[in-house]
Structures are given as C-alpha cells and as structure tokens.
C-alpha cells in the first residue's frame, strides 16, 4: 500500500476592515476593498525576529516574541485597511471619529434573550474563556 504524501503549512490570518490579511512563513498578503469597490492586494516579505536572533526561538521566549510580532503586524495591517477602505475619508468628511458600535459582549447580551441561541452563546463564551478574552 502506498503512503499518502502530506504537506504541512503554517498559514494564518485575520479579518481587517473591508478585507483580510494572510500570513505565511515567508510573507504576508493583504486584500482590502477600496471605496470604489476595487480590491487592492499587496504582498510583503518579512523576516521574523527569531530568524535574526536565534535565542528568540527558545521555548517560552518564542511564545512571547510570536505574540508581540502578531500584535504589531495585526495592528499595522488593521490601520492600513482602515486607510485604504475609506474610513478616514468618512471621519474627515463628517468631522467626527468612526467607532465600532457593537462588540462581542453586546452580541452575547442580545443572544442571551433568545433561548434558541443558548448553544451558540455557550460556544462563544467557551471560545472567549479558552483564549483569555475578558471584558
């Protein structure tokens, strides 16, 4: 019997304002919808700190470094998508800042009032607890 060949990959991503960011071992790609409906895609190569400084790849240290890099990259791409998507144009045009009007806890509060969604609320709460998200 012939063994199946498998290919292991390390790809992850996050949602952006009107877009998405995907990150792999050698680079990162973003796709953001512009106000005119076109989608702007960009690819960026990047090198992780642990490639330059080997001790940053040690267990425990690696986790903290990965967390820090993820936060920096996530924040930068989120701000980039806000700029490309036209959110700043709305702020400038109307003269006031744009804020999120709903967060996950608002959604939970709403769903708590609907018994048919009890299972979904339990899943959301379990996910938040598992990932250490607190209000």
Tell the overall outline: extended
Order of helices and strands: EEEEHHHHH
Q: Stretches where pLDDT falls below 50 for ≥5 residues?
A: none
Counting H and I runs of at least 4 residues, what is the number of helices?
5
Beta strand %: 15-25%
Task: Give a nutshell description of this structure.
The protein is 44% helix and 18% strand. With 135 residues, the chain is an alpha+beta fold.
Task: Give an account of the 3D structure.
There is one protein chain. The model has no long low-confidence stretch (mean pLDDT 82). By secondary structure, this protein is α+β, with helices and mostly antiparallel strands. A four-stranded antiparallel beta sheet has the order 1-2-3-4. Strand 1 and strand 2 form a beta hairpin. The protein contains five helices and four strands. The longest helix has 25 residues, at 61-85.
Features:
18% strand; alpha+beta; 44% helix; 4-stranded antiparallel beta sheet; single chain; 5 helices
List strands and helices in order, with pairings.
Blueprint: E1 12-16, E2 19-23, E3 27-33, E4 39-45, H1 49-52, H2 61-85, H3 87-94, H4 104-112, H5 118-130
Antiparallel strand pairs: 1-2, 2-3, 3-4
């Amino acid at each position: 019997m012939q063994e199946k060949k498998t290919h292991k990959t390390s790809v992850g991503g996050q949602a952006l304002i009107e877009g998405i960011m995907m990150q792999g071992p050698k680079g990162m790609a973003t796709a953001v919808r512009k106000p005119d409906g076109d989608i702007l895609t960009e690819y960026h190569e990047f090198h992780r700190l642990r490639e330059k400084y080997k001790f940053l790849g040690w267990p425990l240290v690696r986790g903290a470094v990965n967390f820090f890099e993820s936060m920096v990259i996530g924040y930068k791409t989120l701000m980039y998508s806000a700029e490309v998507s036209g959110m700043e144009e709305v702020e400038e045009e109307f003269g006031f800042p744009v804020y999120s009007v709903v967060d996950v806890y608002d959604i939970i509060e709403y769903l708590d009032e609907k018994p048919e969604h009890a299972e979904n609320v339990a899943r959301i709460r379990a996910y938040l607890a598992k990932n250490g998200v607190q209000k």
